[in-house]
């Protein structure tokens, strides 16, 4: 899907467990300025429901599983994250909704910038309006 990708990180396995490291501009395609994590989400709760104007993010499910619905004006896709060595890259102008958090699930997010509410598009109709030029006038089909 346009501006989205699944990234496979190194999984260093030993008898004593797994280790994954993530280096900016090597394992993720941006400089990491912020990390945050989401825990304790009820199984029937849904989060997200926004897009970003400029922010790049990678979502990693460290424990349990989480589903992500990705939307653009021309496509919709659903992805299940359940492997700590896999990251979902989401670039600008992608609408995301997170749901089906299993009990004890942990979602880690690495972001390319500090928190700024100005970078959010939280209204879906406004999102469609702002994104349609990018998707339709540039003939993006994916
Ligand atoms: P939000 O990004 O809407 O969460 P989600 O997409 O998971 O539903 O953020 C929820 C609240 O937390 C909102 O009031 C903004 C605040 N927040 C910060 O203060 N700093 C941050 O880095 C993030 C991601 C959110």
From TrEMBL:
InterPro entries: QdtA_cupin_dom, RmlC-like_jellyroll, RmlC_Cupin_sf. SUPFAM superfamilies: RmlC-like cupins. Residues 3-131 form the Sugar 3,4-ketoisomerase QdtA cupin domain. This is Sugar 3,4-ketoisomerase.
